[in-house]
Specification:
The structure is a single chain. This protein is an alpha+beta fold. The chain has a domain of 46 residues. It has a 5-stranded antiparallel beta sheet with strand order 1-2-3-4-5. The chain is globular. The structure holds zinc ion. Zinc ion binds next to loops.
């Protein structure tokens, strides 16, 4: 919609503008080190990156945390 470079995507996890593009509709936040899809603006899928560089779903990690309680 807009090509304004000042209107870049915000990170859905931390709200930072330090977001780079790593693929089609795939972005990387340099502030909190997550990747996320921009395909669904209402519910962007966030991926965390573990120490080995593997991606895993943010929702999965939240689910596991709840299960611990
Ligand atoms: Zn972030």
């Amino acid at each position: 919609m807009s090509n304004n470079p000042n209107n870049r995507l915000l990170c859905p996890n931390c709200g930072s503008r330090q977001v780079g593009e790593v693929g089609p509709q795939r972005h990387y936040c340099r502030s909190c080190y997550v990747e996320f899809d921009s395909g669904g603006e209402d519910n962007p899928q966030v991926y965390l990156i573990d120490d080995e560089g593997n991606l895993f779903s943010f929702e999965d990690s939240v689910q596991e945390a709840k299960d611990d309680h």
